[in-house]
Amino acid sequence: MQLTLQSEKTGDMVVVRCSGRIVRGEEAQFLQREMEKLTERTNKIVLQLAEVNYVDSGGLGVLVRLRGVLREAKGELKVCQLQPFVREVLRVTNMLIVFHPYASEKDAIDAFSVQPPTEH
What's the pTM? Predict the structure, then answer.
């Protein structure tokens, strides 16, 4: 199944709903190009992965690079609604602690408004 993306601006962030597979090759390159375009407009992106049933190392690499680009721009990448296989890929690669997936799109969006505690 080919990767499709549907993006929607929500406040100062963009929610991207992904469907298909995020794998090395055309799908990973497509995701990379589309995310580069979005990072020109915002540094806050939510990837909703409810309809992504497969991620390989190439796809995971794109997600890690995107997270790095956004963090460098003082932003963040939030992922939500992981399918069991995708969650397992993140677990076995120790990426669950990096991405901190959210159960719902709303939870991921709301997480952007939570301010980290300030040090005194």
Answer: 0.90
